[in-house]
Amino acid sequence: ELEKQLSYLQENGYDPIFFSDLPNLSDYDKPVLLTFDDGYENNYTELLPLLEKYDTKATVFVITGLLETENYLTVEQVKALSDSDVVDIQSHTVHHNELPTLSREDQEYQLTQSQLELARITGKIPYVLCYPTGKRNDTTVELTQSYYSFGVDMNGGLWTTADNYYRVPRIYISREDTLSSFVAKLP
């Protein structure tokens, strides 16, 4: 289904972009940000080959505390994804805790340590944070603004550059989405 979805985007003039492409939106007719959460191993084994086949950009949000564990990316795979022209590696915290349940200090640790670890692996400083399960509070947003350029929610709909950069909603596409249900969710 993912391959059908990527093919559909390509055939219908969509322009998958990275967050870093946002300042140049006028260069794209139908920009779309494709994001994948958690850093599963299949992001390397299945997603990367499809992205390369369709020359499609995507952002992968990695939980650094799960690296090198079963079904998750290895450090080498994260580096290879980052080195590709089609994947942007960004932060999804260290342990995927619901941030509002943590103290300010623990939230800051989750944001800064995941950023530091990904920078060590990729040589690039992550500038986008995906809030685990989309949960955030005022402290989370305040801390995110100190370390990142964007904060991304779990779902919620369309986002424009005129909207809040620390409450970026997304349209959720599940593994069960068929091509027709995927197309129905597109703007």
Task: Chart the SSEs and their pairings.
Elements: H1 2-11, E1 15-17, E2 31-33, E3 35-38, H2 42-53, E4 58-62, H3 75-83, E5 87-91, H4 104-122, E6 128-130, H5 138-147, E7 150-152, H6 179-185
Parallel strand pairs: 1-2, 3-4, 4-5, 6-7
Helix pairs in contact: 4-5
Distance between the termini: 19 Å
User: What order do the strands of the largest sheet run in, or round the barrel if closed?
Assistant: 3-4-5
Coarse structural class: alpha/beta
Helical stretch tally: 6
Largest sheet: 3 strands, parallel
What oligomeric state do the depicted chains represent?
A: single chain
Question: In terms of per-residue confidence, which ranges show pLDDT below 50 for 5 or more consecutive residues?
Answer: none
Measured by DSSP, the beta-strand proportion falls in 5-15%
Q: Count the strands?
A: 7
Helical content stands at 25-40%
Radius of gyration: 16 Å
Element order, helices and strands? HEEEHEHEHEHEH
Q: Average pLDDT value?
A: 97
Molecular shape: globular
